[in-house]
Amino acid sequence: MSSELDLQEYDLPDDIKPVWWKHIVLFVLACVTTSMAGMFFAGGKAFSLEDWSNPDMMWPALGYSFCVMLILFSHEMGHYLQAKRYKVPVSPPYFIPGLPIPTMGVLPMIGTFGAVIRMELKPLRALPLLRIGAWGPIAGFIVTVPVMILGMYLSDIRPLPPEDSGAFQLGDSLLMMMSTKLFFEVPPAGHDVFVHPVGMAGWTGCLLTSINLLPFGQLDGGHIAYTVFGERFNKAVPWMYALFIIMGLGVSTSWLGLALLVYFIGVKHPPILRGGTVQGADRTLAVVSLVVMILTFSFQPIVMPSLLEMLFDYLLQLS
After folding, report:
1. Is 183 domain-assigned?
2. Which of 30, 187, 295, 317 could be a cystine partner for 97, CB 3.0 to 4.6 Å?
3. What is the pLDDT of residues 208-224, one digit of tens each?
4. Residue 9 domain flag
5. Is residue 13 a contact partner of residue 120, using CB atoms and an 8 Å limit?
6. Is 93 inside any structural domain?
């Protein structure tokens, strides 16, 4: 064992030992709910046998589910394999299903709340913690890129539907914009690019990756920032959290629910760092993670009025 890493092997605690039937059931349920979301993105109804018997809807729906689950699996394996490498107690991934109800918010709409692994993060040196935190989103991003490109290749330009049709406009990440430019010019007036369900899987991969890379608490971005800045990160993060809430009020209400979740899991990172922060070339993974965040982040995952805009419109109606 490398003395530089100063690690020791731990037995798995009871709450981390795999209970395989739980992992399998959650995986199957997540496959079902992401398939239902895929049917919605294919223009069908999740509980319609007629739509599921239509190959033009069924295969795109299943394609969405397969790609989303592959992205999630790759992300969690990035964490899992690095944790195993450094003898950190870790569970297999728990895939979290989400019943796709479009009016209930972004995460339920995509058919999943992501996936998690349970780790017992005992005091660690910065480099192992950085690798455990960074390789999840990087691995997921490596799969997201070809999924996004394939999805945009399968997409097409159509006339815009009526405003009351239930269609919605996606907020573009840089990766999505670049993938769109590969296959489409600027759509003519009254038209737009209608994203294929596989492209929606790429959009979902971008969304989940960027959420995980937010620099808060025990999100991947929190682990990464903590290894680079140490306790200076914990001093600065409340101000970043306040800015995040302001963004939720003024830019996209989608971020307010996430801000509430971050509050409950903890805004600051647990003080588990042993030794100093990562230095020099060891920071490469942190820089790569920042690039991934820039490419996948969208200020508005779904284009919609902000809470302040809705309040302002309401006050105007009263006046």
Report:
1. yes
2. 30
3. 999 999 999 889 999 99
4. no
5. yes
6. yes
- How many separate domains does the chain show? 1
Q: Per the domain annotation, does 269 fall within a domain?
A: yes
Q: Which domain holds residue 263?
A: 20-318
Is 274 in contact with 124 (CB distance < 8 Å)? yes
Looking only at the bridges linking them, the beta strands covering 191-194 and 156-159 are antiparallel
Contact yes or no for 274/303 (Cβ under 8 A): no
- Nearest-angstrom CA–CA distance, 87 and 108: 34
Q: Are 265 and 217 in contact (CB under 8 A)?
A: yes
Q: Is the pTM of this model over 0.85?
A: yes
Q: Return d(Cα 5, Cα 8) in angstroms, integer.
A: 9
Which three-class secondary structure string do you get for the chain? CCCCCCCCCCCCCCCCCCCHHHHHHHHHHHHHHHHHHHHHHCCCCCCCHHHHCCHHHHHHHHHHHHHHHHHHHHHHHHHHHHHHHCCCCECCCEEEECCCCHHHCHHHHCCEEEEECCECCCCEEHHHHHHHHHHHHHHHHHHHHHHHHHHHHHCEEEECCCHHHCCCCECCCHHHHHHHHHHCCCCCCCEEEECCHHHHHHHHHHHHHHHHCCCCCCCHHHHHHHHHHCHHHHHHHHHHHHHHHHHHHHCCCHHHHHHHHHHHHCCCCCCCEECCCCCHHHHHHHHHHHHHHHHHCCCCCECCCCHHHHHHHHHHHHC
> Can you tell me the distance from the alpha carbon of 159 to that of 24, in angstroms, rounded to the nearest whole number?
42
Residue 196 to residue 108: CA distance in whole angstroms: 19
Measure CA 90 to chain center.
20
The confidence band for 165, taking pLDDT boundaries of 50, 70 and 90, is low
Contact 37, 110 (CB under 8 A): yes
List Cβ neighbours of 42 (8 Å cut-off, separation of 6 or more): 51, 56, 57, 58, 60, 61, 64, 197
Q: Return the number of other C-beta atoms located less than 10 Å from residue 317's C-beta.
A: 7
Dmax (CA) of the chain: 72
Q: How far apart are the first and last CA of the chain?
A: 72
